[in-house]
Design brief:
This protein is of the alpha/beta class. The chain has helices spanning 52-59, 62-67, 110-113, 154-157, 160-171, 187-198, 211-219, 233-240, 256-262, 286-291, 307-318, 323-326, 336-345, and strands at residues 10-18, 26-33, 40-50, 72-73, 77-85, 97-100, 103-104, 124-125, 137-141, 145-147, 179-183, 203-207, 224-226, 246-251, 266-274, 296-299, 327-332, 350-354.
């Protein structure tokens, strides 16, 4: 059985930390205690993946400046092995390979009590509000841990949290036999396109400005890929859908132009799931673009706890997804700043980071 010696009181590790109000991360030595709460576990991180949120923190943009309290160990997407458990833990065991729901919710607010923990008003996010997983060890509540099959590639297990965002976005409205537009082919948008195909969408149309990511979309089997700089998106989408427009739109870009445009090519009575975060004010003609067209709009927050995780597990284990293509870079965790530069260039899919045991004690 795996684990750590009973007499181990502290663990020393290297971690990626945001400790200065400027671009970049520091790679520093940290010591953590192995003391656990009654329902807490200690996880040894096997793989961690770099997210768009981590890029915002790396750049230290306006959102990060307003949200973060420094210093902070960053990172929130991972897979790892449970090496110690609190005295009242019952849901997981030492040796289990887990990923984790990164939103730590209160369980007592109105939203948690009615089964909508994904919009808990007291949510704390690892790597954003509290220390995260870009390190060798991490403490988590047992209820946030999701047990994985040990037969699945650890790289794939580490991207289940963002994959959950994609699943939540795409699966909220029925897509089987439908036409689906994916707006923005960053890593989660690519996953959204992949999920739409896996769930039986009739035609998936991806809209993306970056050539590298358009090529990734083609590689994973997207039916139509549009460069919105070179083509009129509305004209092309209508041409691809017999003049009717798409049944479902998954919005992953956060682009003001893309969002304002999509309401011109969604079908009458169509549906729009919105995950991308705009940085500019969106201007819409609500009467003609939404109300008179009977459009349904859904705002996506994280993953539904824990319904989305079961959907993710089924999709990952089905072999229908192309995660091996969507993961384009695998780097040592110590190269965290290189990961930030690669992600910032736009010329990547998902980046997975592998911690080492440089100074484990």
């Amino acid at each position: 059985m795996s684990g750590i010696p009973e007499d181990t009181k502290t663990l020393t590790m290297m971690a990626a930390v945001k400790d200065r109000p400027e671009k970049g991360f520091s790679w520093v030595k940290k010591t953590i205690t192995t003391d656990l709460g009654d329902h807490e576990v200690l996880v040894k991180i096997m793989r961690a993946s770099f997210c768009g949120t981590d890029l915002h923190i790396y750049d230290y943009n306006e959102w990060a400046r307003k949200r973060l309290k420094l210093p902070l160990t960053v990172g929130h997407e991972f897979s790892g092995e449970i090496v110690k458990i609190g005295k009242d833990v019952t849901k997981v065991r030492i040796g289990d390979i887990v990923s984790a729901e990164t939103h730590i919710v209160c369980g007592t607010c109105e939203f948690c009590l009615r089964g909508e923990g994904h919009i808990c008003e007291n949510t704390k996010i690892i790597g954003v509000d509290i220390d995260g997983c870009f390190a060798r060890y991490l403490k988590m509540p047992e209820q946030n841990c999701f047990i994985n099959s040990k037969s699945v590639n650890p790289l794939f297990l580490s991207v289940q949290e963002p994959l959950g965002n994609a699943v939540h976005t795409i699966a909220h409205f029925p897509v089987m036999g439908k036409t689906v537009a994916i707006v923005g082919c960053g890593p989660i948008g690519l996953m959204g396109a992949d999920v739409a195909k896996a769930l039986g969408a009739k035609k998936v149309i991806a809209i993306e400005v970056n050539e590298y990511r358009r090529n990734l979309a083609k590689k994973i089997g997207v039916d139509v890929v549009i460069d919105p700089i070179r083509e009129d998106v509305v004209t092309r989408v209508l041409a691809e859908t017999g003049g009717k427009g798409v049944d479902v739109v998954g919005e992953f870009s956060g682009s003001k132009t893309a969002i304002e445009t999509l309401f011109k090519y969604v079908k009458l009575g169509g549906c729009v799931s919105m995950l991308g975060l705009p940085s500019k004010t969106i201007e819409l003609d609500f009467s003609n673009d939404i109300i008179f067209r009977g459009i349904s709009i859904y705002g996506v927050v994280g993953r539904r706890i824990y319904d989305t995780w079961y959907q993710v597990k089924e999709l990952v284990e089905s072999g229908k997804l192309h995660l091996g293509d969507i993961i384009t870079h695998v780097l040592p965790l110590k190269d965290i700043n290189l990961a930030g530069e690669i992600m910032g260039s736009g010329n990547s899919g998902k980046i997975v980071l592998i911690p080492g045991d440089e100074i484990d004690e």
